[in-house]
Amino acid sequence: MDIGLSCTVWANGERAGHLDGIGIYSRALWQGLDRLGQTEDMHVKPYAFGHDLPVIDCGKPEQLARDYRIHAVLSGVLKLPLSNSANIARNVRLFHATDHQIPRIKGVPVVATIMDVIPVLYPEWIKQDLKRLKSWLFTTSIERAEHIITISEYSKQDMVRHLGIAPERISVTPLGVDPVYFERIDTAERDEVLATHGLKPGFFLVVGTLQPRKNLQRVLEAFQQLPAQVRKEHPLVIVGRDGWSNEELLPQLEALQQRGEGRWLSYLPQKEVLSLLQSAGALVFASLYEGFGLPAIEAFAAQCPLIASNNSSLPEVTGDAAWAVDPHNTDSISAAMRDVLEQPEERERKVHLGLERARQFSWDACAQKTLDIYRMVLANRR
After folding, report:
1. Local structure of residue 116 (DSSP, 8 states)
2. pTM exceeding 0.85
3. How does pLDDT run across 160-169, given as a tens digit for each residue?
4. Under CATH, which architecture does the 179-358 domain have?
5. How far apart are CA 222 and CA 337, in angstroms?
6. First-to-final CA distance of the chain
């Protein structure tokens, strides 16, 4: 069974030097399917939109088209398939689009992974220059998928409620956690990372691109409600690239650093992030919406206490292992930050629960469920 797997976001991320959630998913899924292919009658072939595509772990992806936006318009308005559909159909029995760039391929069933419905529910969270285009592409491209994969039951119900998709057309494959997050970093190595960034253990950590959905403004306000001495001893450390709509946020981050109450470290390699997770007093993950929330289970695996929102998919993912907060209420977030510091026994209990929770999520399980979906789709076409 030959499967085509889209690697567009993964390839673009490798070229840029960092992977977002979709890039991490695409790479981990390919690795899991590749391992399954050693015992199953299956071979995965990489494809991508774009030109001058880089060589990545799976090799150099074959080009679907130079520009997805042109294909999306032709496909959405005129129902035209990819011009090289015949060649793709000769090489694969099924195509899996791992992101919103869903192609129309004549003669080949397409399975699409849709992480969430943010472009429809919350277009204000999308980059301004892409808002209208991305929302239109999202809604028109979903019809091209014969079956949809999403990453949480919450996201599935959102698609049923807000997009009118029949529930039997959607399958859920929870994400996995990279095994490296379970590994304990050597104390000397952790200390070296902390010293590089002028930190001591016990800080509050935020990981994620600076964008409105991540709710960093309220996290900053909640942090400011803590006593001054606590803010000095347990500073707020933010790891994430500058995103968009941060005009008011960036001066506050600069002021935070000048007061000696926090650091903005921008993007860091995975090994350094892991050292920070294993040194933090807690990860603060007060997002306004998550389709899954991969940083939550990464924190669990790293045995880092977690403060997480009580909305969207996060209760489904975190269970009872996190301090659940109302992300719209700064008092709720601030109270949880105090509790983490003042309740050592509860902190240890939740860390233990979190570690057990993280062990329930693996990329191999995600890959196996995905393979089962491929087989189901192909069987239904006979």
Report:
1. -
2. yes
3. 999 999 999 9
4. 3-Layer(aba) Sandwich (3.40)
5. 8
6. 15
